[in-house]
Queue: 2 jobs
Job 1
Amino acid sequence: MQKIVPFLWFDGTAEEAMNFYVSIFKNSKVLNVTRYGAAGPGPKGTVMSTTFQLEGQQFYALNGGPQFKFTPAISLFVNCETQQEVDELWKKLLAGGREDQCGWLQDKYGLSWQIIPTVLGKMLGDKDPAKADRAMRAMLQMKKIDIKGLQQAYDRG
């Protein structure tokens, strides 16, 4: 059992969101769906909560109601090895959502994701501050991260 599990609050779309996320990530599965009983507080038989795994990471989703919304202050950070992976995840997660800056997007449920190539962290952490600065300046101009564009900016010098 995973000790710390992200808990996601939805307004009636927990099962739909879970199925959407599980369909996108390869190493993923539905673990459990719990429905409200006669005691409520939701209508009997409707989904109360779900548990699922994305790439081995467990999540808990609750249909808690309209009181709370997602904010970009919490996001799911996805390490990507290739541009193909960045492009594929970006396209799928963005469906019905919105693009933000620097590799961030909000999906159709309002949950923020960072779709980030691992090479970006290496570039930004380079011991040569000029290279790191060029990579940062390039990233700040992007919505979806373009590895080739980053590499070109990083290598200029």
Job 2
Amino acid sequence: MKTLRILIVDDHGMIRQGLRAVIQARSGWELCGEAENGRQAVELARRLRPDIVILDLTMPGLNGLDATRKIREALPRAQILIQTMHDSEALAREALAAGARGYLLKNDAPELLPLAIEALAAGRTFFTPIVSEIVMSGLGAAGRKPDAPRSRLTPRERELVCLLAEGKSNKEAADTLGITLNTVETHRKNVMSKLRLRSTSDLVRYAIREALIQP
């Protein structure tokens, strides 16, 4: 039987330790790598080619939604399991749209994690009951809800928001993203205009409210 290769991604060492223990206790499962931020997750996924990636949503540098998109683009067969503290309908739906196949809350019973991994390994989706209820209630709501402000941003603009909200300067953001300072300044102006923000403080509050960074 083929060994199931799993990559875990979370910026909290204790969370990674718990995930590591679950994976190492299972025969036929292999922990192929660990990452502590979204950008590192994408790099490791491309290099290690895991079957399943267990991914937090709120991480420094590159949030889990954009990391999910990038990993799925590079590895269409990789299955993404989101494990997060956020039971938001909007985030759950965005995770699905980004290519995630499972959504698990961190405060869910520990025994659900192996079930989620097994489901994704078998090509099925997995949602904890509360998330299933959130998603289905959203799908069944009458009419179409207005797009959240975040959905109006491009992936590159979201990356920039995360970096700026974490305190990076325009120059540091340009170096991290591999783009010119002028391009960063243009993206920043576009973001501030789209979101109707007036200051960096507004940008930080927006990033925290939308779970792009941790407070």
